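Here is a typical protein record:
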Amino acid sequence: MGEQYRGFKSERVERHYYCINGHTQSPQFAAHVDPAEIPDMIDCPNCGLPAGQDKKNPPQILKHEPYKTHLAYVKERRTSDEAKALLDEALSSIKDRRAKLAEAAKKQLKEEAARTAAAKAQAVKMAAEKAKAAKAVKPVKPVKPVKPVKTVAKKAAKPVAKKPTAKKAAPAKIVKKSVKTSQKAKPVARKAVAKKPASKLTKKK
């Protein structure tokens, strides 16, 4: 009943593989696959060694090399003569490059030395020209500094007194009244002097 819903299984072929350690693997392949495409050997998933279909004679490994160095891989790809030729070529290219760099450095040093020598010569020439120019020019006598002229400030004009107005004359009237009052007081003293006898007054005259 379950195959009606899940579909029908296709025809398949089962193969058995055996490794040297006694592990057995039984993978399945489709029946319509060409038998030549089915591998004769596979890697055992348990130990990683090759497994074959012959149970009595499983495949054997003479020497197991789990890891190889870079030199071992190079030796597999090239012979010793080829390696020697490649090494000589690399060394010659390095020597040529170093020689070119040394020549470029020498040229640069020569150019810098020439530039410094030219700069020094130009500086000496300029110094000699300045010395000649200084000798040719006569020394000028120092001019005495002129004293600054003092500027006389103009006196400010005195303010003109304004004439008193008619309103300011009021205090003078008040003073006059006070004087009149003082003059009125004098006759009182004269009256007192007049009471003296007349004989004394004539003798004094």
